[in-house]
Design brief:
Layout (H helix, E strand, L loop, with lengths): L7 H14 L21 H25 L9 H30 L7 H19 L3 H25 L6 H21 L7 H32 L11 H19 L4 H19 L10 H25 L4 H27 L9 H19 L7 H28 L6
Helix pairs in contact: 2-3, 2-11, 2-13, 3-4, 3-5, 3-6, 3-11, 4-5, 5-6, 6-7, 7-8, 7-10, 7-11, 8-9, 9-10, 10-11, 11-12, 11-13, 12-13
Length: 414
């Protein structure tokens, strides 16, 4: 079930759990009574913080890049940029998503109140440590707490709810946490540089392929049916299985032997299969509904990114273009799409993109295009780098500003 489908059936199961436990400290939606709304569901603090962080981390990195300076933390400028966009911004989005989706998957109570506040503090401590603590071991110790506790929380809910269908999601959350440690280990010269980043990117690419493959056709089908459409997204079939299997194989090969020709060819094939899969989901019919269309754009970026990663190995195109097709393009677009949609759905608002949301979609897309194109731009590299970064970060700052009243305020029908 999707993270923004807070169904009546789930509410009833939560109420039954409350009655069995005799827990009067929570309301009918499982929220801790007396806590501010921002601490009632995981998506509220983590989506807000992720957007703010994305909005300030890119300008900070560009400032370091052009000035030649770096923060006093353990990572040099470029490594800080890569680490924080993955294990700062992206990991916050992932936390907000899974902590909100799991109660719908398992029928159990959401993490909220003081435990959620503690998890937020762990995330914040990691960001501060990576910016200002020069000792790499101390910084690693602070930064490792958040992914470890998040993985534990996810596994606890999957096991307690016997929701084995979503165990692969828990595995990928754990792998993402391990990637964080590997990136710190690389900074200590214990493993090859880039290993942790590749593990993280491969994990999130697979997570996007898997979860995106659920929500994109599902939300598209729901919207088309509501509009009276009869030509609906194709059901899960052989092509989908082949695309996911090839993507998993390609991602594992890219982690292990990134420069191999066979790895490159497998990545290209994975991109082509994901593109073919996307073409069967009727995205062109959603052009008048941006909050649905943007999901197709994000999944399309994933297909392009894997194909470009493969071409970087076999055809010599700049690897930075491929990496930013995955990060700025696929990850940026899909996370913004999910944050805008889930935040509206879980707070009782109509799931429709207003002008500011459409503007954020346009900005993140334009920013990603400029960033991916920059390595091919010659003398225009620096202006395109700045323009792409400015647009991309503006998209998330716009989300933070527009959604602050939604994320910090009470649910409309509470």
């Amino acid at each position: 079930m999707s993270p923004d489908a807070a169904s009546a059936g789930t509410d009833r199961s939560v109420l039954r759990s409350l009655r069995r436990a005799g827990d009067t400290s929570r309301d009918g939606r499982g929220r801790v009574a007396g806590m501010p709304p921002i601490l009632q569901y995981g998506f509220r603090p983590f989506f807000f913080l992720a957007a703010l962080y994305a909005g300030v981390a890119i300008p900070a990195w560009l400032s370091m890049y052009f000035s030649g300076q770096a923060l006093p933390g353990p990572f040099p400028g470029l490594r800080w940029h890569a680490h924080e966009m993955l294990f700062g911004y992206l990991q916050a989005v992932v936390a907000g998503f899974v902590l909100t989706a799991i109660p719908n998957w398992t029928g159990r109570l959401p993490l909220s109140g003081w435990p959620l506040a503690g998890l937020v503090l762990l995330w914040t401590a990691g960001r501060v440590a990576c910016a200002v603590v020069p000792d790499p071991i101390v910084a690693m110790a602070f930064d490792a707490g958040f992914p470890a506790v998040l993985a534990f929380a996810v596994w606890r809910e999957v096991v307690a709810g016997r929701n084995w269908k979503n165990a692969p999601v828990a595995v990928m959350i754990s792998l993402f946490g391990m990637a964080n440690l590997l990136d710190h280990a690389a900074n200590l010269d214990l493993v090859d540089h880039g290993t942790g980043i590749r593990v993280a990117l491969a994990t999130i690419a697979m997570l996007l392929a898997l979860i995106g493959g659920r929500i994109v056709p599902s939300f598209t089908r729901n919207w088309l049916v509501k509009q009276g459409g009869t030509v609906l997204p194709a059901s899960f079939g052989l092509l989908d299985k082949a695309a996911l299997a090839t993507t998993a194989t390609a991602c594992m090969a890219w982690v292990a032997v990134p420069g191999a020709t066979l790895t490159g060819l497998t990545l290209v094939l994975a991109g082509m299969l994901l593109g073919a899969r996307l073409s069967r989901w009727r995205g062109h019919r959603t052009a008048v509904e941006p909050i649905v269309l943007v999901l197709h754009v994000g999944y399309g970026w994933l297909a392009v990114a894997l194909a470009l990663l493969g071409l970087a190995s076999v055809a010599g195109i700049p690897e930075s273009a491929a990496l930013h097709a995955l990060t700025a393009g696929a990850i940026g677009t899909m996370t913004l799409a999910v944050m805008t949609r889930a935040s509206l759905g879980h707070t009782g608002h109509e799931i429709v993109a207003d002008r500011s949301v459409v503007a954020s979609y346009a900005a993140v897309t334009a920013g990603a295009i400029l960033r991916v194109s920059a390595p091919f731009a010659g003398d225009w590299y620096a202006p395109m780098l700045i323009g792409g970064g400015a647009l991309w970060s503006a998209a998330f700052l716009l989300f933070a500003i527009r959604y602050a009243p939604i994320l910090w305020g009470r649910r409309l029908n509470a």
